Structure formats: C-alpha cells, structure tokens
C-alpha cells in the first residue's frame, strides 16, 4: 500500500491467473521490485529483478514499451504499490500486481527459486545433461599442464572477471567470442581445448558452442571452473589480461563458415535493414530489443542506433538482466555474422520465439559512438539542490549535515566518504528514522544520479532540508579527498545485492561448495514450471570423453 493506505494497483492477478499468462504466448513483463539480495532468497522462476531503488534507471532498458502487460511481485509489503505508482507516472498503461506476493505463489503450490539468473543457469545444466558436454576435473587439467601437453585454456568470462582470477596460462575469450576467436588460436586439430568460467554455466555453454560449431578438436569444460580449481587446492592467477585476438584472413573465413552451419542447423532467421526498420516502426505494438553482442569496447567505438550493448556470453548467462519482456522480438547484431549467430542459437533453445540475426552487411553504415546509456526516467524533472565536495567537507567537519550513501553495499564497503551512513533508497521511510530528522540531509551515490532521483523520496520523510552531492562520490574522489572502507555505519542490512561465492561478504570455501551444489540441483525443481520452454538440441558430433 502507499502512504495513504490505498492501493495504486487497480488490477490484481491470482497465482493461477499469472501461471496462465506465462503460458499464453503474449508479451509479459514479470517484475520483482524487491532488492536483489531479498529477491535471491526466493522468487518466481521467470521473475526479472527490478529493485524499486533502481527502477528509473533499469525500467527503460528492461521494459522499453509502455503498453507492455506488466505484473509486479513483492513480499506483500507494499513495494509493488509504490513501484506501480512510479511506473504509471512514467506512462506505463497496464500495470498489475500479484495478489499476496511471493508467499501466495508458493502457497498455491508453485516453486520459489533462490539465487539469481536462475533461468540461464538451469538452462546450462540442461545443456550438459542433454548434450553430454565433456568435462574434465581440475586435477586432470593441472596434471596435463605440468606434463606440458598440447592444450589451450580459454576463459569464457569478461575481462574484468578474468583479471580478478584465472586458471594459470589461461586466455580470456568471453562467451560468444569463443567460436569467433578460438579457431585462429588453436595450433593443431590435436590440441586439447579446455573452457572455464567461475562456476559451471559459461564453461558448459562455451564448450558446447565450440562443439556445436564443429571444431575438430577435443573440447572439455573445466568442471566447476575457478571454484573447482580452488576447491582442489590449486592457486589461481591474478591480474592477467591476455585476450584472444580477433580473427583475420583464413581464420575469419573459417569462423564464418562454422557459424553459417550453426545457423542452418538451428533454422535461425536473418533479417536486413528494411525488416529491422519495420520492427522499429511497430515498436509501440511489439517490444523490440536490439542487442549488439560484440565486446563493450567494439560497441562503444560504433554501433547501430537504438542498440544496447549485450556481449553474447553474458546475454545467455543472464537473460533476465537484459530481457524484461517475455515473447518480445530480439534482434542480435555483430559485424561478422558469427557472434550473433552463436548467441541466437542458444536463445532459441531457451524458448524465445522471435529471435533474429541482422545480416552483417546491414550492421554497417552510419554508426553511433558511445555507451548509449538511456537517461533515467524522470531525471529531467528532478530539481534537487546540490552541494559541492568542498561544501560537503566543511558541513561534515562542522557537524552541520548528515550524509547518506545509497550506492550498493559492495561499493560502500570498498570506499565511501568518511562519516557517511549507508542506506537503501526504497527503505527511506524506515531507515531515515534512525537519524536525526531535522537539520540538513545530504544524499550521495557513485555518480550522483541515483541520489538526485532519491531526493524527493527523502524529502517526503525527512523534516529537515535535503540536498545531494553534485557529481556524487565520484566527484569527491576526483578531488582526491579521503575515503573510508568497511561497512559501518549502516542503516540497513546488506541485502541490496546477491552475495555470490566471490562476494567479500561470503567468500569462503563452504560458500563455493554450496553454490556449485545449488547450480547442479536446479533442474530437479523445474519440471512443469509455468512458462518453461527449454528445448536443447544435442550436438551432432559424438563426444565420449564425458567424465
């Protein structure tokens, strides 16, 4: 409910009605508006996390069409009402709520899933089961390295993750880049190819991509990735930045031929600019996502107008982080007809009905440079008063202001302005009550944007004056002002984000074991789940080295 005690949601659906929506083939955005950490403790399988605290920033990316049928879920705690009020204010026309929230869904006999990116991770487990994706234990890989065997280790994660930790001797080659870049790296058809990630999903999908593309080499996934390596007692490399180069000449021709075979086998649909323009013209009736699946660096250098950067491996790994609307049109773009094809081959197996690959000849022409991040909804109307870093420093020194940082708990733990309190924006009605309610309240966030959006929320419950730090904590840092670390003082528990096995809040051996067990066990609770349309196509090649 809203502060008035009245619901802003005029249409509520029961669990059985929502189950029918998941099956009816129409567009549906099922959005969970709780904080990500709370979401990770239990949510609907196909719910997309959209924390109320980040709604203005994430909603236009996840649900670009304002006429989309939307169902909001929460913990029956009023968050859905508050989110609906905000969405309708931004012009969204069909916003409904799940009556009774998550508890009602569970009470109706449906499953609730823990973790994040669950559809993608469960799909990875299904791929391994159906395709018998070959895998190799860490100890065996370690032995082969020590023996100097002819092998190559390819890490299917983005560079930022690879830089943090990697298998010694590994080369970074993220997700959809594998079929594009790997053939040119492999010296002979006898070279063993080992694909790894941090855990399981990207290792499995990466290895199976190479197999599906017809790479003649023996390909295996490193069982349990870097976590399995650590659990076996082996040291990881740190700070490495070796990236697989882009293919040229004969290598590029080979990868294109491999991708063309995959496109034929999976019946992938290609379109040109004219068809894409038609889709754009219909975007107010049918949701359209245009994803550029190349690396972020390539995207920033130049991309077609309206595209979003979604590196192929990450798109498959975390579909719910990019696609907020089920049964939407999805157009994939690259520059050589390889990465888009490999990504599409997985999305269609995940049950997405309208996936298209833009012909590579149509991906050129006039390009737009930059990150193409959309302006958060409502930001242009914000008129929050600001203070400069110098003014804030003086206010804090004089004890004349209270500072609240609404960045993530992980960001706050790593570095924050000395004296700042950490809090979650969606909990302002509760957490600001722990502070003195008169005087001056200053809000900051990493770049200042979230703070500006939050100012009105704070002003509604804080009796004193509310201002924001101009430029956010980044501006404070740019002036080389002091920073503190640690998690105190905090107004809320750090449940705003999911704490995975490598999170500083939970980086333990036991956490890694539990995470791997969770991934393996996902399939057992997914049978007959409403809306599930996974259909894995086994590889044509016989692989008998599954351990």
What features would you describe in this structure?
The chain has 547 residues and is α/β, with parallel strands linked by helices. The protein has 22 helices and 20 strands. It has a 5-stranded parallel β-sheet. It is globular, with a radius of gyration of 24 Å. It starts with 11 loop residues before the first strand and ends in a 26-residue tail after the last helix.
Question: How would the blueprint of this fold be written?
Answer:
Elements lengths: L11 E2 L1 H9 L5 E4 L3 H4 L8 E2 L5 H8 L7 E4 L5 H11 L5 E4 L2 H7 L10 H14 L3 E2 L1 H9 L4 E5 L3 H6 L6 E2 L4 H5 L10 E5 L4 H12 L6 E4 L2 H7 L17 H17 L3 E3 L1 H9 L6 E5 L3 H6 L6 E2 L2 H6 L11 E5 L5 H11 L4 E5 L27 E2 L1 H10 L3 E4 L3 H6 L6 E2 L5 H4 L8 E5 L4 H11 L5 E5 L2 H7 L30 H13 L26
Parallel strand pairs: 1-5, 2-3, 2-4, 4-5, 6-10, 7-8, 7-9, 9-10, 11-15, 12-13, 12-14, 14-15, 16-20, 17-18, 17-19, 19-20
Helix pairs in contact: 6-10, 11-22, 12-16
